[in-house]
Design brief:
Order of helices and strands: EEEEEEEEEEE
Largest sheet: 6 strands, antiparallel
Helix content: under 10%
Number of domains: 2
CATH class of the largest domain: Mainly Beta
Number of strands: 11
Shape: globular
CATH superfamily of the largest domain: Galactose-binding domain-like
CATH topology of the largest domain: Jelly Rolls
Strand content: 35-45%
Radius of gyration: 23 Å
Structural class: mainly beta
Number of helices: 0
Length: 236
């Protein structure tokens, strides 16, 4: 919604953000790999025979902690107690509590005014509009040659920091095989690993760490090109 002294605010996130985290972003902690190339357009971390890859990368995504409505973007106001917003109180809603949508809309799904005089309506926006980045899945890109790889795993965590408080670590993808393949293949694997419960990351001072582990076979090699983070985003 826009006003004379206002700003444009996006209520719905976009689903198509991709961030390519290439091999140079990763640190091989406790393993041995070298950054190599096969020519233009080819950059990867190379594992020799029986070498271990234990790669970690901070995704460094742009995050937002979320804001409540203001005099500039009054898309949400009012509470169950009848107090004007901005507010984080339950049952804060849009002025007409209209469901988001874009025409054409079927008759059965036409917007109607929701809520009730005491603010107990259902299906309406409450609280701050989700902003920032929501990680949906990760594409892991690597190739295996010579002999099958050993026990590849991937994990993704978010860690929230606060002054003089123990860091709070949450698994977005629990460390495990998660569908990663080990067989020899002529061309690179691009394997998508979904986040179990995608949600906007809104906690302040939060780090996102991607961990990919692959061990080359005794007479095999591995090329780790990196990973693509797929996400929803809302920076408007």
């Amino acid at each position: 919604m826009s006003f004379t002294d206002g700003r444009w605010e996006g209520n719905v996130s976009f689903p198509d953000l991709q961030v390519f985290v290439d091999a140079t972003w990763f640190n091989n902690i406790g393993g041995v790999s070298t950054i190599a190339t096969d020519g233009a357009g080819s950059l990867y971390a190379a594992l020799g025979n029986s070498a271990v890859g234990a790669w970690y990368a901070n995704l460094a995504l742009f995050l937002r902690t979320g804001i409540l409505a203001s005099s500039y973007d009054q898309e949400q106001f009012g509470t169950a107690a009848g107090v004007a917003g901005p507010s984080s109180v339950a049952n804060t809603s849009g002025p007409l509590a209209l469901a988001p949508g874009q025409p054409p809309i079927t008759a059965a799904n036409m917007a109607t005014i929701a809520g009730s005089i005491n603010g107990t309506g259902t299906g309406i926006q409450r609280g701050a509009i989700p902003k920032g980045t929501q990680i949906d899945s990760v594409d892991v890109i690597y190739s295996v040659a010579g002999l099958a790889a050993v026990t590849p795993t991937i994990g993704l965590t978010k860690t929230a920091f606060a002054n003089n408080v123990a860091p709070v670590v949450t698994n977005l993808i629990v460390l495990g095989t998660n569908g990663l393949a080990t067989a020899i293949q002529a061309n690179p694997y691009v394997i998508n690993v979904p986040v179990t419960s995608p949600a906007m990351i809104t906690s302040a001072d939060t780090e996102q760490t991607l961990n990919v582990n692959i061990t080359a076979g005794a007479t095999g090699t591995v090329k780790f090109y990196g990973a693509v983070v797929r996400a929803h985003f809302n920076f408007n």
